[in-house]
Amino acid sequence: MRVRRVTAIALCAGFAAGFAGFARFGGLGGLGGLRTNQVASSARTVDDQGTRMAAAQVLLSSRAAAVKARNKRAWMATVDVPGSAFGGRQSVAYDNLIRLPLGQFSYGTVQLAPALAAARGRQVGPKAWVATVPGTYSLAGFDRVPRSFEATYTLVQRPGGWRIADDTDGATAFQLWDLPGLKVLRGGSGIVIGNAPEARMRAYSAIADSAVRRVRGVWGTDWNAHVVLVTPSTRAEFARLLLRSGDKELDQVAAVAQGVIDPGRRAQGDEVVINPKAFTALQPAGRRVVITHEVTHVAARSSTTSPVPTWLSEGMADYVGYSGLDLPRERVASGLLSLVRAGKGPKALPAAADFDPSRTTIAPAYSGSWLAVSRLVDLYGRARVVAFYRAIAGSPTVDRAVRIDPDARAASAFPQSFGVTESQFVDGWKRYLQTLAHPRG
Fold it and tell me: Do 188 and 113 share a structural domain?
């Protein structure tokens, strides 16, 4: 499309130039010449833009090829000033990229970003411009499809060609390979990537291995059972990996399972990201619970295609997380039961908003959800509860033309799964909370 547009403008410019020659002899004065200059200038602008973008595409292809060839010199040759702060970050990024088990790393089509402000343009150079660049990468053995990323690069022209001067003149998402001091440790059931102390990463790897075994014992084996655990060393890095601008609301979050799910498809490449401050504050049993909880999310998301109510998702993850620990429920849910004793207990199953750490204290919602799933297991058995979850979430082999609200879908599945309505179960669950809050004797 761009080629056709440039060609059309060039033809107009040629026609105008011929008409201008006639005009000078025919008494039309400078009008035709003025139009010629304007159109010719537009043609040059479009042509220059296309040339720059094509050159940028070649430059980025060189970077991707350098990663594949493990050629750091070629990678750094794309950087304007290797000794600058940006150059230092790019050196770290390359070293980290080749430590990862990359299956793919590539850049997509270059797109124009907003122009530099005048002051910034004078600082970088008269021909500097900014490009937004999408990209994809995959972790071999873990990702079923490539993950996506996006960077914004400031490009400058030098005698040797175009170079990348910076990545701070637009939004560039923080990536795994931006973690300073990145290490990669392989375990029996997964991989641990991060810059936390190595001894801590090895301990996390052992927990992840046991978590996979527990999840398979409850959920089943129809998932990859290979986990990517990401362990940043600071809470700020944790927030940036989650694409959060701040970290205050994350104090209550010990870990997060994240990844992209397309509608009607199962997750193709989830990872569990550890919040170092909140996670290290936990006792060993708490760490086991958290990682098993997140691995349960990974298993469910990678083997089903539709969302379930948040209370069911989080309650099931906690149920698997606490399985085998034989901890008294009254102790684990003490915070929620204190609210029940104070007459402030839940009136309904927790809603999605109850799990938002920026809006509320989330521990009671997790405890309530865990006790709801645990009570279902008490009454109907684990196999029926897992089947209930799967019936709501669907399966990767089932094409659902119509997907209704997950809460409504769960409510409609209650009678067939358990022989009671959801409302009847909730009434019983609330009575159960009262029993736990006011034990006899």
Answer: no
Give the chain's largest Cα–Cα span.
113
Q: Are residues 228 and 353 in the same domain?
A: no
Looking at the structure, do residues 23 and 90 belong to the same domain, yes or no? yes
Q: Please give the model's pTM, rounded to 2 decimal places.
A: 0.84
pLDDT digits 0-9 by tens, 326-378: 999 999 999 999 999 999 999 999 999 999 988 899 999 999 999 999 999 99
Residues 6+ apart with CB under 8 A from 41: none
CB 101 within 8 A of CB 140: yes
Burial of 339 (0-12, 13-18, 19+ CB in 10 A): middle
Query: Is residue 323 classed as helix, strand or coil in its secondary structure?
Result: coil
* Residue at token pair 């991060």: 194
Mean pLDDT of the chain: 87
Q: Which of 406, 386, 329 is nearest to 215 (CA)?
A: 386
What is the reported pLDDT for 234?
A: 95
Q: Is 99 helix (H, G, I), strand (E, B) or coil?
A: helix
Q: How confident is the model at residue 264 (pLDDT cuts 50, 70, 90)?
A: confident
Half-sphere exposure of 201 (CA within 13 A, CB side): 23
| DSSP code, position 105 | E
Strand ranges in 159-295 using DSSP code E only, listed in sequence order: 161-166, 183-186, 190-194, 227-231, 255-258, 271-274
User: Which residues on neighbouring strands pair with residue 249, listed in sequence order?
Assistant: none
- Which H or E run contains 302? none
CA distances from 163 to 87, 116, 150, 261, 265 (A): 11, 16, 18, 35, 40
Q: If DSSP codes are grouped into helix, strand and coil, which group holds residue 402? A: coil
Work out the pLDDT band at 5, boundaries 50, 70, 90.
Answer: very low
Q: Are residues 172 and 235 in the same domain?
A: no
Question: 165 is in which domain, residue-wise?
Answer: 2-178
Q: Which two tokens stand for residue 255?
A: 């870990």
Residues in the chain: 441
